[in-house]
Amino acid sequence: MLMQDSIDLALKMTTGLPTKLILKASAAHPKPEGVTFSYGTAGLRTKAAVLDSVCFRMGLIGALRSKRLQGKVVGLMVTASHNPEEDNGIKAVDSRGEMLEAAWEPFCTQLANASTDDELISVLESIIITFKIDLSIPATVVYGHDTRPSSPHLVKALVDGLVAFGTQLIDAGLKTTPQLHYLVKAHNTKGTPEAYGEPSEEGYYKKISQAYLKLVAGKPSLSPLVVDCANGVGAPALLAITKYIAADALPVRILRTSTGVQGALNNGCGADFVKTNQRLPIGLEKDGIEAGDRLCAFDGDADRLIYFYCNGPPSTKSSFRLLDGDKIASLATDYISELVKKADIDIKVGCVQTAYANGSSTKYLKQRVPVTCTPTGVKYLHHAAEAYDIGVYFEANGHGTVLFSPEAVRTIKAAQASPSSPAAQDALEQLEQLTELINQTVGDAISDMLLVEFILRARQWGPEEWDGAYEDLPNKLLKVNVKDRSAFKTTDAERRLTSPAGLQEKIDELVGKYKGARSFVRPSGTEDCVRVYAETALASDLDSLANGVAKLVQESSGST
Ligand code: G16
């Protein structure tokens, strides 16, 4: 295209930009000085006190993204998930219920960092031109928030951004992150043959509870499950679903539900605390739990799930046993693979993990199904899982779900017309219900919990039988505070560092000194730290390796 033609087209495309309205609204949401924002693993996330302008600007992005998708509903969720209560953030949901398209991420970062009005408008113009957005298309955005005290204020900023583009608003209010993903997909598929469910919170509960009840019908009950809700939004959501599922179908004790208590969120409890510290939530041993009880924990926005139990007195630290995302992946992969075999259909099951997956879990899974490794972040795992007919993806930290490809769903439905045996018919019915039970838009603590509960019930297993699949290699996760985490760059699905120069070689040398050891370093995309993961064959080597790598990180960067 000739230069003049390009200029004319750009002018034409950006003519409808409501510059005055945007700048007027933006004046009420000034960017704080001296802060640089970055779109990370799951959106923008940092201290809530500096996020007002970011939320306003993500409102603008939401409107543009919806216009780009011909007016389809997109979602914005105000949450900082597993982070401490004083943090907040925003996750963007695309029209199929998945994470925002990666190509938009650098623009979100640019817009969040624009420090003048001119810069703000210029970034918006470049988004419009890059993605060929027709501004005359009306936008619709559904937005929600978690229980953080800062959320209502930030939602207001978000709405100001949406309103500046005349966006049609759907206020979902207090929601879990997976519920918001569900709502986006349900809105966009309403009235189509692919209708995902009623686009309401009630629709969400109905869809998954009905599937669960069909799956567990006739299967003997298990002892009660104890749930740590991280004092977050998972608490009211779990309470709500128990109104749809009677206690004999889901015997449950719901703990850590103090959503209104300042400072309680994710504090000494929740999935991240349990996984990272490999211990019970603080004080849980005094909550009347016993050896062998099934325990699980959500994170602050209920998109992660971790199970655990004690194989001896809960007051003894050594009795703690973790059933993390890897163990959930192995449970789900085994069960679903068996169903596919019984159903006698030609469907391939695959599994997706990250470098954090315990080496034993990868070995176990690889003996059964193809396994892919991606960088950290649901957005990467989700897309990799789409490559399989049935893709099970879980991060060790408890984020994950199972995706059934449209072809797999068609095969399951078609085979039900003439099943090869009564056992095949039963397996096909179970597979069909699993497509309803599992929230296929994103990892969902509640839906995943029901999946685990169903499988354990079908197998009549307690946590020890489940745990018996394989023995985790001793492992440790450390956070190291550094001056500039952006100095840490990785390659090979984050398993190796390319920067700071020379650090990877030093890590290799250290790892080489320990038997069956592995360690890697990567910058967190949600917290201001660098994460160190270490795994060894011998428990006695673990602390020495993990601390040694952390020391190398500190020496290479200068800790804060
Ligand atoms: C988010 C992402 C996860 C990721 C986690 C930690 O979870 O959705 O995929 O594993 O951050 O990422 P990082 O190690 O980069 O900090 P959440 O639950 O915090 O939204």
TrEMBL record:
Domain Phosphoacetylglucosamine mutase AMG1: 220-305, 324-461
Protein species of origin: Tilletiaria anomala (strain ATCC 24038 / CBS 436.72 / UBC 951)
Pathway: Nucleotide-sugar biosynthesis; UDP-N-acetyl-alpha-D-glucosamine biosynthesis; N-acetyl-alpha-D-glucosamine 1-phosphate from alpha-D-glucosamine 6-phosphate (route I): step 2/2
PANTHER family: PHOSPHOACETYLGLUCOSAMINE MUTASE
This protein's record includes keyword Metal-binding: yes
Record family assignment: Belongs to the phosphohexose mutase family.
Function: Catalyzes the conversion of GlcNAc-6-P into GlcNAc-1-P during the synthesis of uridine diphosphate/UDP-GlcNAc, which is a biosynthetic precursor of chitin and also supplies the amino sugars for N-linked oligosaccharides of glycoproteins.
Cofactors named for this entry: Mg(2+)
Reactions catalysed according to its record: N-acetyl-alpha-D-glucosamine 1-phosphate = N-acetyl-D-glucosamine 6-phosphate
Keyword vocabulary terms for this entry: Isomerase, Magnesium, Metal-binding, Phosphoprotein
Annotated GO MF terms: magnesium ion binding; phosphoacetylglucosamine mutase activity
Enzyme class name: isomerase
Alpha-D-phosphohexomutase C-terminal domain ranges (all copies): 478-551
GO biological process: carbohydrate metabolic process; UDP-N-acetylglucosamine biosynthetic process
EC number: 5.4.2.3
Cofactor: record remark: Binds 1 Mg(2+) ion per subunit.
Name of this chain's protein: Phosphoacetylglucosamine mutase
Residue numbers binding Mg(2+): S81, D299, D301, D303
Binding site for substrate: E395, A396, N397, R522, P523, S524, G525, T526, R531
Pfam families: AMG1_II, AMG1_III, PGM_PMM_I, PGM_PMM_IV
